[in-house]
Amino acid sequence: MSDDLEMDEILKVFFEECAEGLQAMESGLLTLDGGGDRDTIDTIFRAAHSIKGGAGMFGFMEISQFTHAVETLLDQMRAGKRAVTPDAVQVLFQSVDVMREMTNLAEARKPIVSPNADALTSLLAQILAQPAGGTAQATPMAAAPAPVAPAASAAPPEPPAVGWCIDFRPHTSLFKTCNDPLRIFRELETLGPLQALAHAENVPPLADMDPTQCYLSWRLTLAGTMQQSQIAEAFEWVDANSSIDYQPLAPPAQTTAAAPPAPPAPLTPAPLAPAPLTPAVAVAVAVSVAVADPPLPIASATVASAPAAPPLARANVDAGSFRVATEKVDALINLVGELVITQSMLGRFSEHYDPGNLESLRRGLSHLTRNTRDLQESVLKIRMLPISFSFNRFPRLVHELSRKLGKKVELRLAGESTELDKIVLEKIGDPLVHLVRNSLDHGLETPENRRAAGKSETGILELNAFHEGGSVIIEVKDDGAGLNTARILAKARERGLVDPDVTPTTEQIYNLIFAPGFSTADTVSDVSGRGVGMDVVRRNINDLGGHVYVSSNPGRGSAIRIRLPLTLAILEGQMLRVGPETYVISLVSIIETVQPRRAHVQSIAGRAEVFKHRDEYLPIIRLHELFEIEPDSRDVSEGLLVVAESDGKRVAILVDELLAQQQVVIKSLDTNFRQVPGLAGATIHGDGRVALILDVPSLVGKFLEGAGAAIDFAA
Amino acid sequence: MTTTILAVDDSASMRQMVSFTLRHAGYEVVEAVDGVEALAYARGNAVNLVLTDVNMPNMDGITLVRELRRLESYRYVPMLVLTTEAGQEKKMEGKKAGATGWLVKPFNPEKLLATIAKVL
Fold first, then answer.
1. What span, in angstroms and rounded, lies between the C-alpha atoms of A660 and A657?
2. Shared domain check, A544 and A411
3. How confident is residue A99, by pLDDT bands cut at 50, 70 and 90?
4. Higher-confidence residue: A684 or A135?
5. What is the pLDDT of residue A152?
6. Which of A141, A177, A213, A242 best tests the B interface by mutation, with the highest count of B CBs <10 A?
7. A133 and A171 within one domain
8. A75 touching B, CB under 8 A?
9. Contact B86/A at CB under 8 A
10. Do A178 and A55 share a structural domain?
11. How many beta-carbon contacts under 8 Å exist across A and B?
12. What is the pairing mode between strands A409-414 and A459-468?
């Protein structure tokens, strides 16, 4: 792998970690409101810490710098030095948003500029500048000399020196940490010419000597005009348990005098004038971790909190890569192993062909069938991700929205581990957000109203996911006021969606909320109420091959139920035959199939045909006309009508025969040929022939909108 | 003889980046995700330097250093801990546990190589 490619891979891992870390921070922060325990703060801190470290390593200095203040605040919180206040938590929440924005920008290789970063940095600095709850530990330990942090160069100007005389008396345990004085001296040498004079007077007689102890001390003379801090850097790792004195050397005349004559350390005790232990020349420079920005009025916090809903776009939105649990990959490898065994089993049969071995051939084939099925399942599972990926965003969303709306809400999540196809999962996110917002805004009542209704002040919002048959069901349920049918109907009449003389059923009224432009909200809030949405929600879900159902109980709450297919790669299909051709139609879109009587078929204006099905007139789609093929019969009464539904609208599709129902693997027409209106894709039969998959929504749409006008398939 | 460095970090990207940088500088790198894994490796293998993060699940870097120093073969192996600027106490704790020195996060690849060159 080339370096660039490898680097890209590592970066990808980094961004995935960032996304996970930010998620961890967010969920941690949510539980912090009530003070929070140490473990949680620790987790949040660790996530911030890793992001900062990684960002620094990868050269994203903006992220690293911004996260620094966040990390400092968290560090103080976890050390119990700073109180966990709701305000501080809010600032941290916003910081997570900024960090997410920045990492997204970095990932997109765009300039890492977040409009909120500066304001938040100031806010953080402001919090950090406040006297801490416990003892402020802003200054480093007294033992540490001038810190090396170049940022904090508030050090008093050091006298210009032509060199330094350093007394270095290490603790006897110096070697225990693998610190070699030679290493330090070499480093000093990079600063200027160095002379070292060892004092060996403490070296015990050989018999008593412990070779792991350091008995020597040194007087070092370093020539050159360097800062004391530069020298201190070389001693950084050993200064805590060593005595180190720095003496600036006076002007040249005395320098030569001060320099000891010979560098080789004499083993005899050197005559040494005891160096006066001047109170450390090293002035401990206060290193303030707080960024010294001018304090900003706290009101500016509102500027930063502008987005009503945090931009919750997942960091790794690109469909390029995602993580797969190891056990899934293991299962796959396992299966491939079995497949290889089966293959060799069958291979042996072909080598030693013997009709008597037919039984073993049959056995081998049945193995192969099983292997293939298991392999198919396992491969599909790779694309399956737990719905928690989508649910994760809700605690935060509910927290912030309920705060904004002045409602008390308890969010209950269930079935987070239910798995869903990755694509479905990505597309279901926004509709879910919409439904949750609706529940919070319209469904759940204010604490006062709830009390008046004899309910507990805290409303309950449930998000539930589970398997049912071949589908995944997601429920958004609240124990609020329920849908107000009278109001919905009144609004619908007002908008002309329902004729004044028609009395729709309760179910039909519920379905009105999915009508485009429908909203009963009295005032348009920034939470919801613009009436753009429920129709989009339904359309998005339908696009995924799913359905939405509403149920409601006045005064007790409402529930929205979404039924989704497990995967988009495989379709539960009904095979149909028209003349010599086979087509596939999604099983879920079929309502029923009928053998029509001629009396129930009528022509309108000599062009479109309709079929009277129960009390409804359904347009008839003649597939043989659409696809220009010769059917068994053109007489409707000799064929079958498949009543198919999409988006609540129905059509009757004329076919010659119904064949088997089976799972089919969807092959895209776009990638293999080009998009064809009316077709959702193709699949390949066992015998190698291709069957086209009908796109029911587009057929229904085209036919109803064009009032039977032929679809232009020639395009 | 190749110089082997044991790099311990719970963050995969950090580990890979450190490893990437060091391998390009001609070192052999062994990665471990936490103190437990590192210690298990160290019990059966010799390395020339240990580079470990402090904050890690299961076993943190400071405990790792302390445990490693107990091993006969690791008594004189340089060990560097990755700390934060604010981690003054951690530095001292690391020292007490037997760390040779530390590297302040965030650092860049050059700084990493320079620091390692100091002790090797």
1. 10
2. yes
3. very high
4. A684
5. 39
6. A177
7. no
8. yes
9. yes
10. no
11. 104
12. parallel
Lowest mean pLDDT across A19-23, A65-69, A541-545, A575-579? A541-545
Q: Which of A246-260, A450-464, B104-118 has the highest mean pLDDT?
A: A450-464
Cis peptide before A310 (omega within 30 of 0): no
Looking at the fold, whether A398 and A373 belong to one and the same domain comes out as no
Per-residue pLDDT, A461: 93
Overall number of domains in chain B: 1
Mean pLDDT of A148-153: 41
Q: Where are the beta strands (DSSP E) in A119-252?
A: 163-170, 194-199, 217-223, 242-248
What is the rounded average pLDDT of the residues A153-164?
Answer: 57
Same-domain status, A258 and A343: no
Query: Quick check: A119 and A134 in contact, CB under 8 A?
Result: no
Q: How many domains does chain A have?
A: 5
d(CA A560, CA A439): 9
- Domain ends where: A137, A168, A190? A137
Q: Which two tokens stand for residue A620?
A: 């008839």
Of B13, B15, B73, which to mutate for an interface test with A (greatest number of A Cβ within 10 Å)?
B13
CB B51 within 8 A of CB B6: yes
For the beta carbon of residue A668, count every other beta carbon within 10 angstroms: 11
> Can you name the residues that pair with A594 across neighbouring β-strands?
A641
What pLDDT is stored for residue A709 in this prediction?
A: 39
**Residue A645 located in a structural domain:** yes
Question: How does pLDDT run across A493-535, given as a tens digit for each residue?
Answer: 887 778 888 788 888 888 888 877 676 555 444 444 444 578 8
Q: Output the domain CATH number for residue A547.
A: 3.30.565.10
Q: What is the pLDDT of residue A519?
A: 64
pLDDT in tens, A37-48: 788 888 888 889
- Asked whether residue A477 carries a pLDDT value surpassing 90, the answer given is yes
% of chain A residues with pLDDT over 90 = 10
Residue B117 to chain A, least CA–CA distance (Å): 10
In terms of domains, do A133 and A73 share one?
A: yes
Residue B78 belongs to domain with CATH number: 3.40.50.2300
Q: Suggest the residue from A42, A49, A137 to mutate for an interface test with chain B (most B CBs closer than 10 A).
A: A49
The answer to whether residue A630 sits within a structural domain is yes
- Beta carbons of A199 and A249 less than 8 angstroms apart: no
B119 touches chain A (CB under 8 A): yes
Which of A219-233, A280-294, A570-584 is the most confident on average?
A570-584
> Considering the domain boundaries, does residue A102 fall inside one?
yes
How many Å lie between the alpha carbon of B108 and the closest alpha carbon of chain A? 5
* DSSP bridge pairs for A166: A220, A246
Domain that holds residue B103: 4-119
Q: Does A673 touch chain B (CB under 8 A)?
A: no
pLDDT of residue A696: 83
Query: Quick check: A306 pLDDT over 70?
Result: no
Q: Are B20 and A241 an interchain contact pair (Cβ–Cβ within 8 Å)?
A: no
Give the residue numbers spanning the domain of A100.
3-137
Q: Which residue has the higher pLDDT, A95 or A155?
A: A95
Give the per-residue SS3 of A94-139.
Answer: HHHHHHHHHHHHHHCCCCCCCCCHHHHHHHHHHHHHCCCCCCCCCC
User: In Å, how far is B32's CA from the nearest CA of chain A?
Assistant: 16
Mean pLDDT (whole number) for A449-470:
87
Instruction: Please identify which residue in the block is written with the tokens 């530069």.
Output: A230
Average pLDDT over residues A648-652: 83
C-alpha span between B68 and B42 (Å, rounded): 8
Closest-CA residue of chain A to B14: A54
| Cβ within 8 Å, pair A178-B78 | yes
Looking at the fold, whether A193 and A174 belong to one and the same domain comes out as: yes
- Looking at the structure, do residues A494 and A450 belong to the same domain, yes or no? yes
Q: Which residues does chain A have within 8 Å of residue B109's beta carbon, measured at their own beta carbons?
A: 57
- Domain assignment present for A55: yes
Q: Mean pLDDT score of chain A, rounded to an integer?
A: 77
